[in-house]
Input
Amino acid sequence: MAPPTLDFYFDFSSPYGYLAAVQIGELAARHGRRVAWKPFLLGAVYKKIGGQPLVAQPLKGDYSVRDMQRSARELQVPLHFPPGFPFASVAACRAVYWRQAGDPTAAGDLVLAFYHRAFGEGGDISSAEGVLEVAERLGIERGELEAALQDASVKEKTRQEVEAALDRGVFGSPFIFADDEPFWGADRLPVLDRWLSRGGW
Amino acid sequence: MAPPTLDFYFDFSSPYGYLAAVQIGELAARHGRRVAWKPFLLGAVYKKIGGQPLVAQPLKGDYSVRDMQRSARELQVPLHFPPGFPFASVAACRAVYWRQAGDPTAAGDLVLAFYHRAFGEGGDISSAEGVLEVAERLGIERGELEAALQDASVKEKTRQEVEAALDRGVFGSPFIFADDEPFWGADRLPVLDRWLSRGGW
Output
């Protein structure tokens, strides 16, 4: 039987998603779990229930940037904001769902490579070209992915996954389910860690 | 010289403010600091920059209630939501600023008693009567506080404190400054704790 998963929902344009993504693999492994990587689109959430990107909000935006930088320094991971941030992340989403080919625990390397390019280096992953460059470095055949990004079934799979995330109650990034228990925010990772250690409370 | 403070901003109607308030005294003492208790009104923030109470927001509201309950269980403190929650907290604010009489580190007992009544017991502290009952149990003379709640200078002091909180960038509850470093949310207490231990990073 496959080990249980941690279902890790995130938007590639989310700095807190990045800061959680670099930690979640080790956390999951410590509890005998695998990560199911579930990219989705915050824009779909805003469309459904309203809202706007964190960094665009008065006061909260400035604080959040400061908190993201402080969190990154403590984790000792680089944090740079890509040009055009917050950016459209649907191409990167599609690449991941295509690469997973039905196994949600696959393609973690691609997820982390996208995030590293976007927030570790401040590079572009909003364009198909940006996505293809990152994928090529992992040995993914460029022409194959280029075709996949335009493939109707890949687009449909991505649409369904985003819809399923919203149906499950996901409204922010990162958002993690341990079985049916929801955890929102990179700041909830220590709570999730204790939850898994104790089997809940 | 007085020891440095942790400036603890909170709305009495904020469950996360309650969950942080029961921890902040011990945290501050561990780092040789005193708590400056700074009640303010989230309503003034919403008026200034928009927004609405957390629990009224779609999806986020349901999640937040669950997260508050989970956080309270882990801390082993009672959590009950008072009738009419979220409630008007200006009377409790005024009582605190009156009781402090210019010393922001005073009246911690009153703050904790209000919070205990509201979220520990699910009782009313939105009315003058609710505020007076809590204060009486601490030995505060009822008639004196009753007059203070109507006193123009107490109202003005409260108005100024709320304005000063907004001017300092406070937009949520709890919101803590360690010197000039801001920390928003009960979930940032462990970060604040490490920040004070290390002298920042």
Notes: Chain B has a mean pLDDT of 96. Residues 15-30 of chain B form the longest helix (16 residues).
